[in-house]
UniProtKB/TrEMBL annotation:
Keyword set, alphabetical order: Signal
Keyword flag Signal: yes
Protein name, per record: Uncharacterized protein
Bilayer-spanning residue ranges: none
Organism of this sequence: Rotaria sordida
């Protein structure tokens, strides 16, 4: 068997003629023409001479070229078929008109079509006939087969652009039906398609490689040419899949799936079971940096086992992988403690209470421990060392809460000092000084007899003992397992590594540099199954076991005594041990929840259904007679498992919208309605990792006439609240880098060339210059100009204004390195005169400047902050671009002033000054007299330890007075001071900016055009920016975070409309990446960041409802806590809710599953109804109007009824509220009729049918009666 490859880089096809069982090869090359860019290739006999020919799709030349074969590996007389304006990207063959001649089909990526060339028996072809695949479909790949078993070939198409596959059914005459579409999910970008019978039902199934989201999708054939919804198998979000093919790799007569992952230089295999499902992924590492691009499966060496040929893009190689097999292995990542550390023990815990596991090892400097914090995605956030005493040489470590303060402490066994050392934790990653006290075995029940056994690693005899326990604390029989000659087993640990509920034993072989695992059989027998080599001379010593990423897969952390490293071992691609992925096996919709509303504004009730099994929401349009006409399906994406659905007008456009809770993906989806029965594509909002949300309710929690979302998170024991608002959104950052210009510190916006477009000026402190980015008015910058501030100047800040009154913008720069202010006078065409300098004093290190007329002489002056001399300097202008000698005002010893801003804080039409005193943790206000003099500095504290870096001003509460906001770098917060209008400010109010955010800069603007000022924050620590949206009353809502890229270290930002669309855009200076980043504003959405409220450990909240339980006019939240058998109440507090949850019992082991709120006894107080799943009843808590309730009254719903949901309405038209209960256990609906005083009577039960199991209930008038 031979191989032919299309090589677009050299415009040739390359033929590899294999012989000697694929151990040798001859290579032949054939040109396809200059700039032909051959993209795909297929082999067939096109001229009926019993010799194989080659057809090539030439993307660059708009043609197909056919090379006719002699049958001896050589080719002649190439024939060219024009594809017109289309660029063929993929080619395949088949007999589409049943004339026993091979026809050609191509995918035309640029013209959104496929084309058929029907063949004659002499190697010639008819003119192409094209079939449209959909606007922007961009087809990338084709597969040919008979999907509906009518003996006519059909075509399956991977539509990269529209995220779907299309099926064209053949009519046997070379024509095809219109396309049948199957979604591959949003942003999936299917790039390759293949077919095979995966479940041995004699029907062709389909598999696609989804480039955009790193998975493969399988569509199983229903035996009639229709297919199941896509079943996905994840490779990884960091994967970029290029190609998929099928074959039987492991000789089990079941087709396997082979995927090429170019981004990770890997080949992945999903072994098939033959029933339509696949085993855990197996991975083959190709040469690093090779960028594999395609693969073919065949038996190349005639050993009756399939092999794989791989094409590599970067290294231009064809790799033949012969005799593939699957074996367990582990990926190892090493972290240096210290080259001479000789670490022997390791422990794992969360030392700083951030929910991320940390690692502590011994061996640092011989007498200490080293803590590595926050292991995530293969990295640690920080490291810290603690002494365990001079010459202590700690040999073993354990971690526990020794003093019952809910903080993890560390205990060390110190060989050198014959002591035990205790480091008590503070819970934030810090520990007390060590306290010492004078002074490898594992135990577990290995044979399931409820007695503890012991396992011992014997270093001297190179074996392992298992000692079986007897009731009296002694041990009976002993079982010995050899660990191999010279293995020197040292450390042992016990865990269930293969999830079979039997304990296994892991051990380090010190001398052989191995970590091994013995799998337990549950009867005391063990078998050595896993052996991992961790590096020559590494000498693994101690280890610990944990699941760092909550993927149900245990990682092993091992100390490498020989080289001073700590290694983390993660097992991969072994079916018994690799990451387990759940695959959808059934095809039932599994309708979990429904809601009613009028979606098309025809005054008839429609319904929406959450189909958890097929990951859709289903819209049924009502006809007004209890029947439904149209069924519309909206995909929610595979694996999301929509569990609960509700409807409301989220965006106040008088059209009903749909909110879906997706328990599988820890998210909610919002589909905004058009009012005609159709909806926009869903927007997803995260409810938190592992949250498993299960219900949602709407309410106006802050009385702003916008609906908010409240979600019950069963998995994380909390509720998630999304406050509704008009949140502006931005495109992802577009970075601009001026080559050779390093350290952009601050950016400002102005029109420097008088073209009415916004430009940007930037100081580059590393390369001592300013740069001008000239805007083109469409959101990009085309010209960059560079001006030196002189060697060693270290420009740190700048501002722009017209200094010399020539109607042209000038640039003023604070040069920290040369102790001066530099002036660049603008020419109005984007160019500037050379820099003039004005000294600020020896050692002054100016770091911030502002411009205004401080002495009312009609000329602009400059104020500068001198960080080196702790003072403020004034340069009074002459109006011609020159300035008088600097005048100095002291700010206070060691105040460390870092920024200056100006404004009229007391409404006297005179310019005042605000100074940011970083070390003093305050803002200093100097009120101007209008003659160049100022009052004594008045201090406003931002609180101890905040270290503010910047200040900005605006009217945040619409009282026409100037307010103040600071960026508090060390406190991860911003502080708001509301102005009094007389130069003074009110008490500080603080808003967090997120853990580790370290905000450096704030600015003010109206980003959502609601005439209320918002605050934008630069988070240096997390490489992000975020807008806090103002409500116009001095309070703010946190918007979405936008990344400035890893390591960018954003410092400052500026605001402008760079594309003239009426929306504010943002430009950020990123010294860490030597870029400026542009974020263009483009849209808005109703929700942004989530606020969480704890409901108690183990509470498992299942349902939420809204009511006003204390009659204060503010909405409160009621929660059904299934796990803790209670109802929780969070009382509303304007823009927030109380910190403490009130608790009311629903009964012992009641299992409250659903909660609803209404006034059941007409006393104008909110009452609560709870469906108790476990105790088969509903509980009613009548409210007193002061957030307290009468004891619960229960009504039985029937033995084993398991009530799942309730609805409250007046069902018998007596103007009294009644209750309907959905009983999932007995498949009934139970009606309880109200008496108007909070009690109920006359139960009626309606049988739904066998095994209906109702999970949700909604109330509406379906037949308009």
């Amino acid at each position: 068997m031979d191989v032919v490859v299309a090589t677009s880089g050299i415009d040739k096809i390359v033929i590899f003629l294999l012989y000697n069982n694929a151990t040798s090869t001859r290579v032949k090359l054939y040109s396809t023409g200059a700039q032909s860019l051959p993209s795909s290739i297929v082999v067939d006999d096109f001229n009926n001479d019993n010799c194989l020919d080659i057809a090539v799709a030439n993307y660059g030349a708009h043609n197909i070229e056919i090379f006719f074969g002699y049958g001896n590996g050589t080719f002649f007389n190439s024939k060219v078929l024009s594809t017109g304006s289309s660029r063929p990207l993929f080619i395949n063959v088949g007999d589409f008109n049943n004339d026993n001649q091979s026809d050609i089909i191509i995918a035309n990526y640029d013209t959104d079509s496929v084309s058929i060339f029907l063949g004659y028996d002499n190697g010639s072809f008819q003119n192409q006939k094209s079939y449209f695949t959909g606007y922007d479909s961009s087809p990338r790949s084709l597969a040919v087969g008979d999907f509906n078993k009518d003996n006519h070939l059909d075509i399956a198409i991977a539509n990269y652009g529209t995220n779907n596959i299309g099926i064209l059914f053949g009519y046997s005459n070379g024509s095809f039906s219109s396309s049948q579409i199957y979604t591959t999910n949003q942003n999936s970008n299917p790039i390759s398609i293949a077919i095979g019978d995966f479940n041995n039902d004699n029907n062709l199934d389909i598999v696609v490689a989804n480039y955009g989201i790193g998975n493969v999708g399988v569509f199983l054939n229903y035996n009639n040419g229709t297919f199941t919804p896509q079943i996905t198998y994840s490779i990884g979000t960091n994967s970029r899949l290029q190609h998929v093919t099928v074959g039987d790799i492991n000789n089990d007569n079941a087709l396997d799936i082979i995927i090429v992952d170019s981004n990770n230089d890997q080949i992945h295999v999903f072994p098939g079971y033959g029933n339509g499902t696949f085993a855990t992924i197996s991975t083959y590492d190709v040469v690093s940096g090779s960028r594999p691009f395609a693969a073919v499966v065949a038996d190349f060496n005639n050993d009756n086992q399939s092999d794989i040929v791989v094409i590599t893009h970067e290294t231009n190689q064809l790799l033949l992988l012969v005799g593939c097999s699957i074996r367990p292995s582990a990926r190892q990542r090493n972290y240096l403690v210290k080259p001479s550390a000789h670490s022997s023990t390791v422990a794992i815990a969360d030392f700083n209470n951030d929910t991320q596991l940390d690692i502590v090892v011994n061996g640092y400097e011989g007498s200490g421990v080293r803590i590595m914090f926050d292991y995530n995605n293969g990295t640690f956030a920080k490291e810290m060392s603690y002494s365990t005493g001079n010459n202590s040489y700690p040999q073993h470590i354990c971690v526990s809460d020794l003093n019952n303060d809910n903080r993890i402490d560390i205990v060390t066994a110190n060989l050198g000092s014959d002591s035990v050392g205790v480091l008590l934790g503070y819970g934030d990653g810090n520990f007390t000084t060590v306290t010492t006290y004078s002074a490898g075995v594992g135990s577990a029940d290995f044979n399931s007899d409820n007695r503890l056994d012991i396992v011992v690693a014997n270093s001297r005899t190179n074996n392992m003992w298992v000692l079986f326990g007897i009731d009296n604390g002694t041990f009976g029989r002993q079982r010995t397992y050899s660990t191999g000659s010279e293995s020197l087993p040292y450390f042992v640990a016990v865990a269930d590594f293969n999830h079979d509920n039997q304990l296994d034993i892991a051990m380090t072989y010190f001398r052989n540099d191995k970590v091994v695992i013995f799998f337990g059989h549950g009867n005391g027998d063990f078998e050595l199954v896993r052996t991992y080599f961790v590096g020559t001379g590494s000498h693994p010593y101690g280890f610990a076991i944990a699941d760092f990423n909550n993927d149900k897969q245990l990682e092993i952390v091992v100390t490498l005594w020989g080289n001073g490293y700590v290694a983390i071992l993660t097992e991969y691609y072994a079916a018994d041990f690799a990451k387990q992925i759940m695959y959808f096996m059934g095809y039932a919709p599994q309708s979990y929840s429904l809601a009613a509303g009028d979606f098309n504004r025809d005054n008839r009730s429609d319904i929406v259904i959450a189909n958890s099994g097929i990951n859709t929401i289903e819209i049924r349009i009502g006809l007004g007679n209890s029947t439904f006409d149209t069924q519309i399906m909206y995909s929610i994406s595979t694996g999301l498992f929509p569990r609960y659905v509700n409807t409301a007008d989220i965006d106040n456009d008088n059209n009903l919208d749909i909110v879906t809770v997706n328990s599988g993906s820890d998210s909610v989806s919002v589909n905004l309605g058009y009012g005609n029965g159709s909806f926009k594509v869903s927007t997803m909002y995260s409810t938190g990792v592992g949250s498993h949300p299960c219900s949602v309710v709407f309410g106006d929690l802050n009385n702003d006439n916008r609906l908010d979302l409240i979600i019950a998170n069963e998995g994380t024991d909390n509720i998630a609240v999304f406050i509704g608002y008009n949140y502006s959104t931005f495109h992802n950052q577009k970075a601009y880098k001026a080559i050779g210009n390093l350290g952009p510190r601050e950016a400002v916006v102005g029109d420097f060339n008088n073209d009415s477009y916004s430009d940007v000026a930037v100081v580059f402190y590393t390369t001592n210059n300013i740069g001008i980015f000239l805007g083109d008015g469409n959101g990009s910058f085309n010209v960059f100009l560079n001006y030196s501030t002189t060697i060693g100047s270290t420009p740190y800040s700048l501002v722009v204004d017209d200094i010399n009154k020539d109607d042209r913008l000038d640039v003023i720069v604070a040069n920290s390195g040369t102790d001066n202010v530099g002036i660049f006078l603008g020419y109005g065409n984007g160019n500037f005169a050379g820099m003039m300098t004005f000294p600020t004093g020896i050692g002054s290190r100016p770091c911030s400047v502002a411009v205004a007329d401080f002495n009312d002489d009609g000329r602009l002056d400059i104020v500068v902050i001198n960080i080196g001399t702790n003072n403020i300097g004034f340069l009074y202008g002459y109006g011609n671009g020159s300035f008088a000698t600097i005048l100095i005002y002291q700010t206070g010893d060691n105040y460390f002033p870092t920024a200056v801003r100006i404004g009229d804080f007391n409404n006297d039409n005179r310019i005042d000054i605000a100074v940011v005193n970083t070390n003093a943790n305050n803002i200093g206000i100097l009120l101007g007299y209008g003659n160049g003099n100022f009052t004594k500095q008045v201090i406003y504290s931002t609180r101890h330890g905040t270290r503010p870096y910047w200040v900005a001003f605006g009217d945040f509460n619409n009282d026409y007075e100037i307010d103040m906001v600071t960026a508090n770098h060390h406190d991860n917060s911003i502080s708001i001071f509301l102005g009094q209008g007389n130069g003074s400010f009110g008490d500080v109010k603080t808003y967090p900016t997120g853990d580790g955010s370290m905000p450096m800069y704030v600015n003010v603007g109206d980003f959502n055009n609601d005439h209320k000022l918002d605050i934008i924050v630069v988070n240096y620590g997390t490489n992000q920016i975020v807008v806090h949206f103002g409500l116009g009353d001095g309070t703010f809502l946190w918007g979405d975070l936008y990344s400035t890229d890893i390591g960018s270290q954003p410092n400052t930002l500026a605001i402008g409309d760079f594309n003239k669309d009426g929306r504010l855009d943002i430009v950020v200076s990123n010294p860490g990446s030597d870029t400026i980043g542009l974020f263009l504003g483009y849209d808005s959405k109703p929700f942004a960041n989530v606020k969480l409220g704890r409901t108690g450990n183990g509470s498992r909240p299942h349902s939420v409802a809204i009511g006003d339980f204390n009659n204060d006019g503010i909405s409160d939240i009621a929660i059904a806590n299934y796990g803790n058998n209670n109802v929780g109440i969070y009382l509303g507090l304007d823009n927030a809710f109380s910190d403490n949850m009130l608790i009311y019992s629903t009964g012992v082991d009641s299992g409250p599953y659903f909660v609803a709120v209404e006034d059941l006894n007409n006393d104008n107080h909110s009452d609560i109804v709870v469906a108790n799943f476990k105790s088969d009843n509903i509980a009613i808590l009548l409210g007193y109007g002061n957030a307290t309730f009468a004891p619960a009254v229960t009504y039985l719903t029937g033995d084993r009824s398991h009530p799942f949901a309730v609805a409250i309405a007046d069902f018998d038209n007596d103007n009294v509220l009644d209750i309907a209960v959905a009983n999932s256990g007995t498949s009934t609906v139970l009606l309880l009729y109200g008496n108007g005083n909070g009690s109920f009577r006359n139960e009626e039960s309606y049988q739904l049918g066998y095994d209906y199991r109702p999970y949700s209930i909604a109330v509406t008038d379906l037949n308009q009666d």
